[in-house]
Design brief:
The complex is a heterotrimer.
Chain A (H helix, E strand, L loop, with lengths): L5 H37 L5 H5 L6 H37 L6 H21 L8 H28 L8 H26 L4 E2 L11 E4 L4 E4 L1 H23 L1 H11 L1 H6 L4 H27 L1 E2 L5 H14 L4 H22 L9 H16 L14
Antiparallel strand pairs in A: 1-4, 2-3
Chain B lengths: L2 E10 L2 E11 L4 E5 L6 H8 L7 E6 L2 E2 L5 H7 L1 E3 L12 H7 L10 H6 L2 H20 L15 H14 L4 E5 L7 H18 L2 E5 L3 H7 L2 E6 L2 E6 L1 H6 L1 H8 L1 H5 L2 H4 L10
Parallel strand pairs in B: 3-8, 3-9, 6-7, 7-8
Antiparallel strand pairs in B: 1-2, 1-4, 4-5, 9-10
Helix pairs in contact in B: 3-5, 3-6, 5-6, 7-8
Chain C lengths: L4 H7 L9 H21 L7 H13 L1 H7 L4 H22 L1 H26 L8 H15 L12 E2 L4 E3 L6 E3 H21 L7 H21 L25 H14 L8 H29 L2 H11 L1 H6 L4 H27 L9 H14 L4 H31 L3 E2 L1 H24 L21 H24 L3 E2 L13 H15 L8 H23 L1
Antiparallel strand pairs in C: 1-2, 2-3, 4-5
Helix pairs in contact in C: 2-3, 2-5, 3-16, 4-5, 5-6, 5-11, 6-11, 6-14, 6-15, 6-16, 7-8, 7-9, 7-14, 8-14, 11-14, 12-14, 15-16, 15-19
The chains are: A mainly alpha, B alpha/beta, C mainly alpha.
Chain lengths: 382, 272, 549
């Protein structure tokens, strides 16, 4: 492999991916803003009762006031979804298999992060910790545990089933998912007596919200949101470098494309698969820590909902494609943020309808463009 | 003409798999489609049976167009096929495999009949079983209907595939490399079987084949494809001597030599 | 085809005893009587009651399956089932209504599992949202008969106390419950087709996720359809759902009670009136199971069944042979959904309170687990799976919790040796079975993940050493664990660790182990065993290539 000059390296592995991410974010934000305004202009008063009140505010005005937080929220959750989606897509790439248990690996990361921060709290020094090393510690712990867990799961529950009809590993994955939820519940029940784990973030000096004054309204940004975005970007940059710029990453890509030939070229498929699971699991673990930091809590069943959304994101972007998972995650995060806002104005929809719309997106993609936005068409040879 | 194909074209991205192909197949005939690997022969079959949809062109079968029909609809119109790699229902018995081939045959079986086991249901089942057994006897597998198809030797599996394709009482049957992997004895038996399909059952046969002994032995008419295009057609004698055909299989230098004569002496494997 | 039984016992010495109809018949009769008497003699107040009832009841619940699988003539089976299901089980149910509840639940889930088996087992379409159709049936009945303030409140059309509904316009009175069974079937089938249409082209994993999503969507919709117009009463659920009239049972029940009182001491608070509703539902439930069994069997042995098998094996070949994929797949979804719809109506009538909580994803997975554990595709296997899983969920785990509680109340201390014995038994069984596997080469690849020794000649010495090492480590660990076990006072059992809330744990492990060691299920259907067994052969080949490279 030809060596790159430092400038080329920065260009390929830092600037270009950053540019991609920026494109995905800005693109989806702009698109959704436009669509939302169109809807707001067509239906200024979705709630007929509210329209009759004296100081009725039109939907468009609400939108303008809240646009900044909607977009920020979309970015934050979008990055989390992107990281989880990468776990699904990487595993699908090498094994053509949806790791149903990935959502629980995500959850385990959040729980591990909780344990770390709790033990620091127990030592009484939590308030003195600088947030950056704290987050790095939590994220590393989450990464390591989730990654190893994923490798063990593959070895124990999936590898013996290679070659079996599709139904069999899928059921096994469901079994792993169920097992993990209750295993964590049991461990938490025994060690802490409760499985709703609240991150002890109250009162920490660096958790106060930051107010930014914008033309239309004030924007409140929480430091945890900034942490999520920064950490996610760093992880994604590193992942991109790993997959595209290192020998191991090339090995993974080779096995994704054609495992037999890769084997003939001297690549140990099993090791690559284990590595893929580790990387995917690690990403899921970090996503868990960041998600829990953002929402302030963790509990054993927290993985299911983000898992389904992230899977939708992976499919939306093109399952098996790394940039696809990024695009899907960011775009879907933005979509959901806008949906949450818009749907709350229509009396016939509740807040849960965001999930229904997300699911509808999944169905539509699978019907009309199963390869996703950035995926390749694969036809069956007859 | 039972089958009249004109201007048939299919592209996959940048690759033109089938390029402006024209074929006419008369009723009660045995024809062959030959050509080097990758020439588009199987793709042609897939287009005819509705698995792919052509980009342009027309397919007239028994006076009606087949364009836009699904494979099961094409089957119902009377055109069935076998596959290049054996695609039997491996865990079903031989008899069941053939019975599936009769699914679209009248009388159609309704849900009500099935659930309530009306007399019409039992009648149909009896008839279907009888016909399937008949067909198995026809292809030389009489009495072996209860064997699991996966356990059959290769040659017998091919026969089951043929019986299954014939089960729907088709007018035309497309056979995709039916003698692949057969030894010379089996190929001879296969040739006889194909002749009997035409003579005794009145079914038109179209073969894709690489075994020249079989092709030259029973085809009345041969069409040659290369790189998706028809490069020659005619009687076996015409094709044997056609320099373009020789070039397609063996390269230009071979075409320049006397090879046309040499092909009359077959190699032990029987292939060209 | 029966021959004089007395002669058979003597003149067919080559038939093993367990295939001899007479011997088996006698065995079953004795078996049922003994188990029933044991059950009737148990005392609720006994500290060890939960354990005893968990040991005694499942054998009785499995008795119908025993009869079905026994080598008896069809008439013998029919009579046996009639007596067992019609008299013995209801009697036990009257004695202790908990048993009756369990029997009804087993029947309901058997019916559901049979329905799902049509979709997953026959047609090979992985449906993870099956509970949605169940919900449709339950909500249909509930919406029309509940006293809650929904749009559909039609309980004023019900003639009170009679279970009849007056149809508008025609002014005809017909029994409401059977009418709704039919309506449930039809509406659920429509939902099945609606679900099936968009997913026709999806395979395997994708189909699973999408159907899962559908199940969730239905649940969320039902949860939220209380505004702007109240259709389902949202999260509050529908209460006061009517039940079919059962007054006609009072007579027979009086007799049953008399008979029961003559042999055991019954609980005086249980009267024919208190029990008639459940008894009726029990009979309806087992009838549903019977009907669905017959229909499923008929579907399987028909062109439709063959078409489904063909689709499962090779879709492209199937459609090329004239099988109309779209119609066949939709038919599978519709018939599976129809079964669930009918059972749902029954469920609504039984529970008298219907809410979205009963129709979660876990329920779909439960039913799927029943089909898988029992044996995908095979009707008998599915019944076994449903019985086993339901008992596990509703009896074993619950009683485990109850037992812990009652032992806590008497300050029971489990001695170290008792614990050692309890742990040792499964461990020894596992080791014995693993060693057996070691001798059978073709299963070896499957247990690659586990530290058992492989006695294959071609294995590299290092690998062999590692494997032996693993076994040694396992044995040492086992010994250490055994040594470190101490007496354990039950009151030290953590209060949050209530087994009946840990179904997922048990299920998770169960599913994983079943997939690794017996994916074809406990009572495999012959064809699926071949399919999945064939996969073993492929796996074997793959491993050989891997090992060689």
């Amino acid at each position: 492999m030809q060596t790159m000059s430092p400038a080329q390296w920065v260009m390929t592995f830092i600037l270009r991916p950053l540019g991609q991410l920026l494109l995905f974010i800005v693109g989806s934000a702009v698109l959704l803003t436009v669509i939302s305004y169109i809807i707001a202009l067509l239906i200024p008063f979705p709630n007929p009762e509210a329209a009759l009140r004296p100081n009725a505010i039109a939907l468009a005005d609400f939108l303008s006031a809240r646009l900044a937080p909607i977009i920020v929220g979309g970015i934050v959750i979008g990055f989390v979804y992107a990281m989880i989606a990468l776990g699904y897509t990487l595993v699908y790439g090498v094994l053509k298999f949806i790791n149903f248990a990935h959502s629980e690996i995500f959850m385990v990361g959040a729980v591990v992060g909780f344990e770390v921060i709790k033990s620091i709290e127990a030592s009484g020094t939590l308030a003195e910790w600088n947030p950056i090393p704290l987050v790095i510690l939590m994220a590393s712990a989450g990464m390591l545990v989730s990654g190893l867990l994923a490798v063990v799961i593959e070895r124990v529950a999936y590898r013996p089933l290679r070659g079996a009809p599709r139904l069999v590993p899928l059921i096994s994955a469901i079994g792993v998912s169920l097992f993990l939820i209750d295993a964590v519940r049991a461990i938490m029940a025994i060690t802490r007596g409760d499985f709703n784990l609240i991150y002890p973030l109250n009162g920490l000096p660096w958790t106060d919200s930051i107010k930014i004054q914008l033309p239309e309204a004030a924007l409140t940004v929480r430091p945890t949101q900034i942490i999520v975005v920064v950490a996610a970007i760093l992880m994604l940059l590193f992942l991109n470098y790993f997959v595209n710029g290192t020998k191991l990453g090339r090995g993974i890509r080779a096995v994704s494309q054609d495992a037999t030939t890769a084997g003939l070229m001297g690549i140990d498929a099993n090791r690559m698969i284990s590595l893929t699971f580790f990387v995917g699991g690690a990403l899921g673990g970090v996503a868990g820590v960041l998600f829990a930091l953002n929402t302030g809590k963790a509990e054993p069943t927290m993985g299911f909902a983000p898992g389904i959304v992230a899977f939708t994101a992976a499919v939306l972007g093109g399952i098996g494609s790394v940039p696809g998972a990024l695009l899907g995650g960011l775009a879907l995060g933005m979509v959901r943020s806008f949906l949450d806002f818009m749907l709350s104005f229509f009396p016939m929809f509740g807040s849960r309808y965001t999930d229904i719309f997300t699911f509808a997106i999944l169905i539509l993609i699978l019907i009309f463009r199963p390869s996703g936005i950035l995926g390749e068409r694969v036809d069956e040879k007859v | 003409m039972l089958l009249d194909v004109r201007g048939l074209t299919k592209r996959f991205g940048g690759l033109v798999a089938v390029n402006n192909v024209e074929i006419q197949i008369p009723e009660r005939s045995i024809s062959a489609i030959i050509g080097p690997n990758g020439a588009g022969k199987t793709t042609l079959f897939n287009l005819l049976t509705g698995i792919y949809e052509p980009d342009t062109g027309s397919i007239q079968f028994d006076g009606r167009s087949l364009i836009g029909l699904r494979p099961d609809q094409v089957n119902a119109r009377g055109m069935t096929r076998t596959f290049q790699s054996i695609r039997l229902f491996h865990n079903m018995s031989v008899l069941e495999n053939v019975m599936v081939g009769m699914h679209s045959r009248l009388p159609h079986v309704s849900l009500l009949q099935t659930l309530f086991r009306l007399p019409s249901f039992d009648e149909r089942e009896k008839k279907v079983k009888a016909r399937a057994s008949e067909l198995l006897r026809f292809v030389g597998l009489g009495g072996r209907g209860d064997e699991i198809s996966r356990n059959l030797p290769y040659g017998d599996q091919r026969r089951v595939e043929l019986a299954r394709a014939l089960a729907g009482d088709p007018k035309l049957v497309l056979l995709d490399e039916p003698t692949a992997g057969m030894n010379p004895n089996e190929s001879e038996d296969a040739k006889d079987l194909f002749r009997r399909v035409r003579d005794e059952l009145g079914v038109t046969v179209v073969l894709i084949e690489h075994d020249m002994k079989v092709v030259m032995g029973i085809s009345e008419h041969i069409t040659v494809l290369d790189y998706g295009q028809k490069i020659a057609e005619g009687s076996p004698a015409d094709i044997r001597a056609n320099p373009r055909v020789i070039e397609a299989y063996l390269g230009r230098r071979a075409a320049g030599t006397d090879y046309g004569e040499k092909t009359k002496h077959e190699t032990p494997e029987g292939t060209m | 085809m029966t021959t004089p039984t007395a002669v058979k016992l003597k003149t067919r010495p080559d038939v093993p005893l367990w295939k001899n109809p007479v011997a088996v018949g006698i065995f079953i009769v004795v078996y049922v009587i003994v188990i029933t008497l044991i059950l009737l003699s148990l005392d609720r107040r006994d500290t060890w009651f939960p354990l005893k009832t968990t040991l005694a009841f499942p054998p009785l619940a499995l008795a119908p399956l025993l009869i079905i699988n026994a080598p008896l003539s069809r008439w013998a089976k029919a009579i046996g089932l009639f007596l067992l299901l019609g008299f013995v089980l209801p009697l036990v149910g009257i004695y202790d209504t908990n048993y009756l509840e369990l029997l009804i639940q087993i029947s309901i889930f058997s019916a559901l599992a049979l329905g799902l088996n049509i979709v997953v087992g026959f047609a090979g379409l992985l449906d993870l949202g099956y509970v949605a159709f169940f919900a449709v049936g339950a909500y249909l009945w509930a919406m029309f008969t509940s006293t809650a303030d929904t749009v559909f409140k039609l309980n004023n059309m019900l003639v009170p106390g009679s279970g009849l509904v007056t149809l508008p316009l025609i002014n005809l009175q017909i029994a409401a419950f059977p009418l709704f069974l039919v309506i449930g079937v039809v509406i659920a089938a429509i939902f099945g087709i609606v679900l099936g249409l968009p997913v026709l082209r999806l395979r395997g994993d994708y189909l699973a996720i999408v159907t899962l999503g559908f199940g969730e969507v239905i649940r969320v919709l039902v949860n939220n359809l209380d505004k702007p117009i109240n259709l389902t009463n949202g999260a509050q659920g529908l209460h006061n759902v009517a039940a079919p009239s059962s007054t006609f049972l009072i007579g027979p029940l009086d007799l049953a009670f008399e008979f029961l009182r003559s042999i055991v001491k019954t609980n005086s608070s249980v009267t024919p009136e208190s029990v008639q509703q459940q008894i009726l539902l029990y009979f309806i439930a087992i009838s549903l199971v019977g009907i669905i069994m017959v229909l499923a069997n008929r579907l399987d042995n028909s062109p439709i069944g063959r078409a489904w098998t063909a689709i499962r094996e090779d879709e492209v070949a199937a459609i090329a042979m004239g099988v109309p994929l779209v119609r066949m797949k939709l038919l599978a979804f519709a018939t599976g959904a129809a079964c669930a719809g009918a059972v749902g109506v029954l469920y609504g009538a039984k529970q008298t309170f219907v809410s979205p909580e009963s129709f979660q994803l876990t329920q779909s997975i439960n039913i799927l687990a029943m089909v898988i554990v029992g044996g995908l595709g095979g009707i008998r296997g599915v019944l076994l799976g449903a019985t086993v899983v339901t008992l596990l969920n509703l009896q074993v785990l619950t009683n485990f919790s109850l037992q812990i509680n009652s032992l806590r109340n008497i300050n029971y201390v489990a001695s170290a040796n008792t614990i050692r014995v309890i742990i040792a038994i499964p461990f020894i069984l596992l080791t014995y079975w693993a060693l057996r596997l070691v001798m059978k080469n073709d299963q070896l690849e499957r247990i690659d993940a586990f530290p058992y020794v492989r006695f294959r000649k071609d294995i590299k010495p290092l690998q062999q050493a590692i494997m032996i090492g693993r076994v040694v480590v396992l044995v040492i660990a086992g010994v250490l664990i055994m040594a470190s076990i101490r007496d354990f006072p039950i009151k030290d059992w953590p209060t949050q660790l209530t087994p009946d809330k840990y179904q997922r744990f048990v299920f998770g492990i169960l599913l994983i182990l079943m997939m690794i060691f017996r994916p074809e299920g406990l009572l495999p259907e012959p064809r699926r065993a071949m399919e999945l067994g064939h996969a073993e052969a492929e796996l074997h080949k793959l491993k050989e290539i891997e090992d060689a490279s």
